[in-house]
Amino acid sequence: MDLAFPQIAAAIAIFCFVSGCATTTPPEGFYQGETPYTMETDTMKRLEKIPELGQPQITIAVYNFPDRTGQRKPNVKFSQLSTAVTQGPETWVINGLKAVGGNEPWFIVVERQGLDAIIKERQLIRSTRELYDGESDVKNQLKPLKFAGLIVEGGIVGYDTNITSGGAGARYFGIGVSEQYRTDQVTVSIRLVAVQTGEILLTTSATKTIASYSSGGDVFRFLDMSTKALEIETGVATNEPVNYAIRTTIEHAIHNLIYEGIDKGLWAFKIEE
User: Fold this and answer.
1) CATH code of the domain containing 135
2) Which of 251, 145, 146 is nearest to 204 (CA)?
3) pLDDT per residue as tens digits for the range 40-76
4) Sheet of 229-239, strands arranged across
5) Cα torsion angle, 46, 61, 253, 57, sign
6) Number of domains in the chain
7) What DSSP element (H or E) covers 96?
8) E-strand spans in 67-113?
9) CB-CB contact of 94 with 109 (8 Å)
10) CB proximity list for 5: less than 8 A, separation 6 or greater
11) Which range marks the domain in which residue 58 is found?
12) 190-242 pLDDT, tens per residue?
């Protein structure tokens, strides 16, 4: 037997009510994805606006900046092998150091992640020149690699989930609405080490909160007591990207490191004459 008109009207009204509780329509171009773009953060802009260095550029090296949290992506259904945070944070450390001072960069960052590849390529150049060009004194044909006086070390030392969580909901005659929120927290630690002495000159850390929010509604109602029932669900969730949070936290830690170095006399701003 077909549904009566009042029942159909009630179903439409319920659907409109629930769908109004959460935006379910994807933004324009959602299914095609965004065009790749370069993201510039507010913390990166702060690094670029740091005043000019009052001494020659500082050569600095970044080896590893590991994930020391051991955290895995949360999943209640099965074991998750993917890590909760990026495994390449040294990229953001290098970018942050290169950005300090903007057009008048403070640091010369030397390559250490791919050092083995550089050494192999230099060996290949030497052997090729010696074999085919007859150059016996090949040591003078390549400039020596730059060495760093300072090393940046540290890592992602904390990733805590469900620091704050909560929500609210209500149900009346089979119609329910709810909202939930959760905050996670990531902590980064950076230290500056002198190569000649091994002394830790500076150390700092930074913490950022990662926010997640979801809202939704649902309807479950019998339209016919024998067999027919109406069930509708709708919802939307917003999650701050973890990679973005880690990047901005690292950039903020570098900003702190610069000004701690100013306070301790390791470097100084250029004095305008």
Assistant:
1) 3.40.50.10610
2) 251
3) 788 899 999 999 998 999 999 998 887 777 665 555 4
4) 107-110, 58-62, 150-172, 175-194, 200-222, 229-239
5) negative
6) 1
7) helix 90-99
8) 107-110
9) yes
10) none
11) 41-157+191-205+242-263
12) 999 999 999 999 999 988 887 776 766 666 555 555 556 656 666 666 777 77
Q: How far apart are CA 23 and CA 236, in angstroms?
A: 6
User: What is the DSSP secondary structure assignment for residue 2, as one 8-state letter?
Assistant: P
| Residue 201 placed within a domain | yes
- 3 state DSSP class of 90: helix
CA 72 to CA 159: how far, in whole Å? 10
Measured in whole angstroms, how far is the alpha carbon of residue 123 from the centre of its chain?
Answer: 36
Side chain identity at residue 159, one-letter code: Y
Residues in Cβ contact with 61 at an 8 Å cutoff, skipping those fewer than 6 apart: 109, 110, 112, 148, 150, 151, 152
Q: 153 φ, ψ to 5°?
A: -125, 175
Angle of CA points 86, 24, 185, to nearest 5°:
30
Q: 138: which DSSP letter?
A: G
How much is the pLDDT for 174? Answer: 62
Cβ atoms of 201 and 154 within 8 Å: the answer is no
CB contact at 8 A, 141 and 129: yes
- Within a domain: 52: yes
In a domain, 7, yes or no: no
Closest Cα to residue 174, out of 228, 225, 220? 220
Q: Would you say how long the chain is, in residues?
A: 273
